[in-house]
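Re: folding output
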Amino acid sequence: KAVVSTQSTGGEIHGSCLPEAQRSEWSARVATAVIVRYHSAISEILISLRKTEDSLAMLKRGRKNTTVTTAPSTTSDEDKIRCQLRLDVTALGDKLAEMGVSLGDDYSNLLNLVSQTKR
């Protein structure tokens, strides 16, 4: 959020110094760079979540012989993280659209990544 907010403030402060076409081009470049890096970071987080879930599932299978009563299924921490990632990506898209940056294929790919995170 800070990168997007900083960029929008910079545009407001220096907006009169730059032609509109230049401002739009720079905004699009910055947005694309942020989206690409965000995609990379989220991919790593999701891979880590899957590995953690797999490890926990293996531990649970190993303990099947022990009879333990478990509470009814609730939202896991992993599901909460996935939900927060979806909210963050949606907020990023809203902020970029508010700034007048067109959301292209990179953003669509990012949104798809967080939308289909449930195994």
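--- second protein (sequence, then structure) ---
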Amino acid sequence: KKVNYSGWNGLVHKMLLDCYDIVQRIQFGRIVLIESNKRNLSDYVVVSIVQLLLNPYCRSIKGFMELIDKDWVGCGYPFLDPNSRYYFTLFMNILWVMVTFYPKSFEFNNSFINEVYFESFTHRYGTFLARSVQYENNIIYQSPSLWGRIIDNLENYTTNEGFDSMR
């Protein structure tokens, strides 16, 4: 009930519509530029969702890990800042909705999404402690990566054996 009053569902809907509009423009051959500044953290969400919609590789486990490393960690998303968690939560919620409605389009399941989301808050893995790739390189040697644990337990996170990351 509180979710309905918070406007969260409307925000998720609006974000999906914005991403769909960008995808349509790209599919019609238009050039789309998402000009970002560090203050507009919603750009992380838009860029990631658009890639998930356009690129099947990003819907594979390996592709998703690369997406997080490249577009969130590599661009300096402040995972450690409690005020910034809202945007990663928004992204993961939209992804959860997409996987729920289109499970055959993803190699991974909602258990994978829940695991990544939960661990992004625990600070147990260097994956989400970094604010840049350079900083991440120092952290990787000092803490384990969530991706290693996921790869070791892939059977818990995959549902679509027929998934083709080239489609």
